[in-house]
UniProtKB/TrEMBL annotation:
Belongs to the SMC family. SMC5 subfamily. Keywords: Coiled coil. Residues 309-343, 391-421, 635-690, 740-767, 837-871 form a coiled coil. The keyword Phosphoprotein does not apply. GO terms for molecular function: single-stranded DNA binding. GO terms for cellular component: nucleus; Smc5-Smc6 complex. It comes from Hirondellea gigas. GO terms for biological process: double-strand break repair via homologous recombination. Residues 8-998 form the RecF/RecN/SMC N-terminal domain. This is Structural maintenance of chromosomes protein 5.
Amino acid sequence: MAFIDGNVVRILMKDFLTFDDMEVHPKPHLNVIIGPNGTGKSTIMCGLALALSQKPAITGRAKEVSEYVKHGKETATIEVEIYRGQTKKSNLVVKRVITRTNTSQFYLQGEKASYKEVESSLKKLRIQLDNLCQFLPQDRVVEFAKMNNVQLLENTEKTVGGESLYEQHEAVRNSGGAVQQLRIRVQQIQTQFQAELGKNASVEAEVRNHDVRKGLETEIKELQTRRLWFLYTQQRTQHLSLKKNKEKLMAELNALKERWQPEAEQIENFQTAVDTVRNRIKIEERVVSNIGAESSGLESRWSEFEEQRQDALREYQRKEEMHRQQQQTLQDLHKQLSATKTEIEQHCSKMKQDDDSAQQRVISELTSEVQTIGTNLTGLQNTLHSTRNQHNNQLLEIKQITDQLNRMQDTNRQRMQLLQQRYGDAYRAAMWLQKNSDRFKNTVHPPICTLLNVPNPVYAQYVEDRIPRADLIAFVCRDKDDVNLLKQLMDEQNWAVNIVHSASDSVAEFKPSRSVQDVRRLGFEMYLLDAVEGPGAVLNYLCKTYALHNIPVATKDTVNVQRVPSNFPRFYIGDSRYHHSRSRYTSDIMTNLSFVQKPMLLTVTEQTQRLTALQQQHSQLSQHASETEKSCQQLHNKEGELLILLEEKRKLKQQMLQQRNLRKTLQSRLEQKEAQIVRAEKDAVDIDEADKVKEHKMKAATRSSMDVIKGWSELAQRQSSVKHNLTALRSKFKCLGDTITELTTAMQEMEQRVTEKREEVAEAVQQVKETVRAGQETLAELLLSLGLSSASQINDAVRGTFNDGVQGLEPTEQKLTELEAHRDCLVTADAQVVEEFNRRKKHIENLQLQLDRVKEEEERCTSSMAEQRAEWLKNVATLTSTINQSFSKLMARMKCAGEVKLSKPENEDELSKYGLSICVRFRGSERLRELTAQQQSGGERAVSTALYLLALQTLSAVPFRCADEINQGMDAENERQMFTMLVEHMTDINASQYFLITPKLLPNLPYNDRVNFICVFNGPKISCQISLKDVFKRKAQLAKAAKAR
């Protein structure tokens, strides 16, 4: 067995994905890489791909190279040795070092190299890892079926047609593209040619009118010059006339000003006299104002003195009323004093008849009885208060227990709320079932999660982990007919629910493999069935389906895993789930460890024992509270009786004390009345003295008022004199004002006439200026039109030119208007349009030449493309026929039918749409259908893909091929046939190297010496170096850490 150039001789990987250090030596023909799932078979292909390709996407896995570095390492190394002994003395060694920072470095023969250098070396050996027909990793198997016809043709050409066929295809496709571009260019030039012709045709008439317009413009310009000459002559004559009128108006204005001056001086003199009188009037008005202020001050003083007189009178009246009230009070006090003396005398005569000692004895007895009753009442009230507190505490405790019972008995509602939040269809179906349960033959239980009760919440996570989510929300029917009916009703409502059947409601038939005592000796606490409560039918279904009766549970890490017998395939310890399974290859027992998630549906539990205890406690407390309430009522009644008796004794004692203390009371009242009479006589008002004070104050106020009245009289005389002067001044001011008004009116009329004359003068001046400006502008235009620089250059010769032809301004303007109207009626093109017309005319000529040249080039390229296409179609048809024959034979051996054909587009010139179609048929009743990712099943696609790759092997132009688990999804018969054919073809002496990765091999498959098996698995002695207990413990720690994150 000899290698050929491009075969893989050695693959070395260090710290790559799951491998610490791995080296494999393939053989030159069929290399079958086998091993259990997860051991790293596909990792070998990933390493080969990353060593020979720069793009991680080729593996179909991670997109960044840093993700291929083993966890906890900083770099990963891949080294691939490729045979090239037929052409060179040494093999090609490609190495790639990948870092955690997402960088990498390629090496060739141990020296640093760029990927372009690596790619160039691989290309010489015909290695194409981006071609799915050569390299098909596990994660890209489905992409093979997703390739369209064009991609399949290209990859097939690269794989078995060699570089020449694919390059020929590319050349034909490029030629077709060039022809299409030339045809598009011809169409573009023709479109542009017709557009330019149309544009010139649309403006041709306007361009002709442009020349006519030029002649009219010249004639109009001459008439405009004649018009300026006649206009200037007219404006000059008008200027001389307006100048004479202006001088006449100026003379009339000066005459009016001479008449206006004397009247203005007279008005100014009268205005001075008016200002003098106005100032005197202001002075007199201030004097009147001052007199008014003094009068107001005197009036205020007089009011003040009058108020003093009234205050004195009111003070006397107040004291007079006080004196009268004091006299009345003294009379009343004397009467009360007389009555008190009489009452004392009557009481003294009566008291002599009674025995003082007997009265005192009765009072003492009553006092003793009151004290005894009070003591008994206090004791009774303390007892009543204590009893009431006890009763209140009992009622409070009963309420707390009642609340706890309500909460614990409300678990069903809480479970339904949890179901509603997470699974709406199951909740709606459960609510529907509550109202329609009578429609079924036997009991239909609502979702299992609403029925199961885990008294100890610690075990809820194990129960929920063991029972799949689909069964936790499933309905349980006792009758099979009810299963079908419920499914039909749920489908009508469009509710997605799960329904299971459980005929028995007993779990007695399910026995654990070992007794509870035995599993407790191992460190377990109970079986999972012992931790859960629920209807018998539900528990029967769970035991039958998930063996809850044979799954031991330990909430703490107290179990030695290695001592757990193998007849417990599943058990729980702490937060971990352990699963025992037997290897199909070695028959050894394997243990899988998984982390147990916290419960999501069984979080609401019902504690039965606690509920019973609380109900008993509630009953006992209610009985005690009733007895305490009766005791409180009896004590309350007795308290009322004692209060009544105590009140009677107190009233009797009070009456006795009042009789004994009446004399003292009367004597004290007599002394009080005598003291009040003495105080009243002492505080009495002296009415005579008050009258003298009143008379004195009133006389003083009257004298001050008389002084104020005298000052008032003097102010009135002064005010009368000032007002008389003020009246005379105001009369004189009015006369002067009337005179000024008359003069002002006359003056305003004169000013109006002067203003009007000034406006006439200003208007005349403005007209003169306007004629001067207009004449200058007209002269400037005339000089510009004549080509002269100053008016002095206008000589007789120039004037003579205007004597011929049309004479006068109006005839000239009329003729000018006619010519301008003729010019404006012409539809002409502007200068830019004329320029564009001429430019397009030249462009049209150039386009005609360019069109002839491109058409000639198109005909030449079309002829060349036709020759290339014919040659390529011949070669690709031959290749397709060969592949079809091989593929059809292989499919026939699988008792199926297959065909490979070249698909052509409707337009044969669209060379980019040529493709390769794979059509297959797996059943005799079907027709051939194209292989796609949708039309065939996964197993059918796998068979088709494998046989197509096998068909290509006979035409192989590549040094090696890789296929990762293409037998996945095949049934045993197809897999056996496929492997048999693979061995036949791949072990041919001329076949290329082949890598087949599979997790399993059927028994009794045919092999020969050219088949090389590479088993990826730990060796038989590796278990001696590893502690399974440490592995399980470490895995549990990692699971907890992941959960904490």
